[in-house]
Write a structure and sequence with these properties.
Blueprint (H helix, E strand, L loop, with lengths): L2 H15 L29 H12 L11 H21 L4 H5 E2 L12 H4 L4 E5 L3 E6 L2 E6 L8 E2 L4
Antiparallel strand pairs: 1-5, 2-3, 3-4
Helix pairs in contact: 2-3
Length: 157
């Protein structure tokens, strides 16, 4: 056999001997971002958004009916800001669609921006009209459409 075929056969045998499956099962989606000391939002985000995301990272939960949701909202907002906001804004997404909310004491009513609706799902891709999301085997879409209720950024609460 040729050198490459020999190497492929060897790797296949080693994988089989270890009970390993040699199929490529890498997940290439960005990791979910934990609440970290600094937001590395990238150079293409406007300075006011970088400052807002940094404030979001450190602020206390606002007066809301379910403050336990705040940690997830912050984590999702940082994921959007760290991995996706630059690309989305360059595609024409308004920043309020990514990080906005409708001021109310019930976060269940803040169903308008991506950071609030994400609810721990993983973003797989973005285009000019949609974010493509995944939660396990379930896929969903966050569409860009008029969102008249958004009037504040999360870090302005």
């Amino acid at each position: 056999m040729g050198k490459w075929m020999d190497l492929a056969l060897q790797l296949e045998q080693e994988a089989a001997g270890n009970g390993m499956d040699n199929r490529d099962v890498r997940d290439v989606s960005p990791p979910i971002v934990a609440i970290v000391p600094n937001v590395h939002a990238g150079p293409s985000l406007p300075p006011d958004l970088i400052a807002g995301l940094d404030k979001l990272r450190t602020m206390r939960p606002p007066r809301i009916q379910r403050p336990e949701l705040w940690v997830e909202i912050v984590r999702d907002g940082l994921q959007v800001g760290t991995h996706w906001a630059s690309q989305a804004i360059s595609l024409g997404w308004p920043p309020l669609y990514l990080f906005g909310c409708e001021p109310s004491s019930d976060p269940d009513q803040w169903d308008e921006s991506l950071a609030v609706q994400l609810a721990g799902r993983v973003i797989r891709a973005v285009d000019a009209d949609r974010f493509y999301l995944r939660d396990g085997d379930v896929r969903s879409i966050f569409e860009r459409r008029p969102r008249p209720g958004l009037s504040k950024f999360l870090w302005e609460l």
